[in-house]
Amino acid sequence: MNWKRLEVLLPLVGVVVLLAVWSVVTWLRIVDPVLLPSPAATFKALWTGMFHGKLGVDFVKTVERTIYSTIIAAIVAIPLGILLGSSERLYRSVEFLIDFFRSTPASAMFPLFLVLFGVGDRTKIFVAAFGAALVILFNVAYGVMNARKTRILAAKVMGASRLRVLWDVMLLESMPATFVGLRNGVSLALVIVVVAEMFIGSVDGLGQRVFEAQQMFEMPDMYAAIFAAGALGYGLNLLFLTIERRFVHWSGK
Amino acid sequence: MHPAASMELSANARAAATRTAPHVTIRGLSKRFADATIYDNFDFDIPRGKLMSVFGPNGCGKSTLINMIAGLFPADKGEILFDGQPLNKIKFGYVFQNYREAVFPWLSAFDNIAYPLKVMGVPKKERNLKVEKIVASLNVKIDLNLYPYQMSGGQQQMVSIMRALVVDPEILFLDEPFSALDYEMTLFMREQLQRVFVETHTTTVLVSHDLEEAVYLSDRILLLSRHPARPVEFVHYDAPRPRTDKTMTEGDFISTKAHCLEIFQREVRKG
């Protein structure tokens, strides 16, 4: 047997162990089966929910909200981050504000955004966009500020104008940091969207699904919705990583 | 006297004068950093078509000198002219010590070399031709589709040298270009630089911290004092090219190097 070839299966070990422990626990009824349904019941609920039930609709809704808020955040934060980052003085003058609001839990902003935008989708998307934008802004600005001075000088020595240096050098220099910001931003947006779906008068979305299932004591459905949210978060991160590896191939090299 | 004949003579004389006149004239150059006066009313002429090294004690302002000549940062006072023209009227190339931070990792080697042409607004087709020409003339065997991070240090520095040369510069500056390379690569790159110079005879100013390298590669060695730097001596070394390992065993090389070292030591002790 070739052990080297088996090493690719290592990441599955944890999953198998978790499922085994879970099965044993439910089979021996160590935990009340109402609180912890078996893996089979949970994955059946996940499967039927995703492909024949409302869970699939909720999943798509949450994806939409997360993507919209990330896009809005990126459209606002990337140009602003480049602008602020291109002048260290400018950034220093607003640094405290950015750090302050970056440190403020976005969930604390729900009531304010509710007043501003009502109970609809807009509030959820805007709060999430607000949180994500600050994370992206911070990363982009630092990416631009930390652009290698030598590279900027090299472009200047070759006769590049200020605008060209900004476009050809600083923008590309900030790309690795920008993608770090986007990945963190989309994760944060998902967190905020799910929380918003739970508590801000929602009729759909994964957050609402988890909350409703819990209220109805439909435990397999609740676990299924949690797993769906986990898969979504993992998938979004993976998606951005893949885009990053493709477009920012020089990152970390 | 025939008027046409005298015209012809003076045109010849003018051409001869241009050939032998200094390429760069530095007058009254002054530069202060926070804690020290690096240059104080510094005058110097850089000869045309020669490979010149700048050598001197640590911190005397070797790099500062070529950085000011190449306009990386401004002098406090003074005038630097290239055939009587300011820097922005001429084409020049600059090679940084830290090639890793000077090349663009998002561009392939080919696009890195072509970049200054792009800045100048040269059409793509012409850019490609020029890059291919420079690569062929230097006989460089690098896969130019690679990105810098896929290349060795020497190859990356070769890319930045070609990037400096692709614009047909009137003058080429190199700031300790080989000091971040291992010894084997340094020896190889010296030969590459010598080859570039033999091919093009571009006026070249090399900052070096290695006296052997400076003498081996140069026609002229400018020895600077401690700061405020002044030219202590402008040593001539006219061994024929191409120079080889054997050149370094010849009496002329050894005595030139010994002479430079003596002056250098004297200047260091003055500190």
TrEMBL record, chain A:
Residues 59-244 form the ABC transmembrane type-1 domain. One of its GO terms (cellular component) is plasma membrane. It is a multi-pass membrane protein. It comes from the Bacteria. The chain crosses the membrane at residues 66-84, 96-119, 125-144, 188-211, 223-243. Gene3D superfamilies: MetI-like. The keyword Coiled coil does not apply. InterPro entries: MetI-like, MetI-like_sf. GO terms for biological process: transmembrane transport. Pfam families: BPD_transp_1. Belongs to the binding-protein-dependent transport system permease family. This is Taurine ABC transporter permease. It comes from Tardiphaga robiniae.
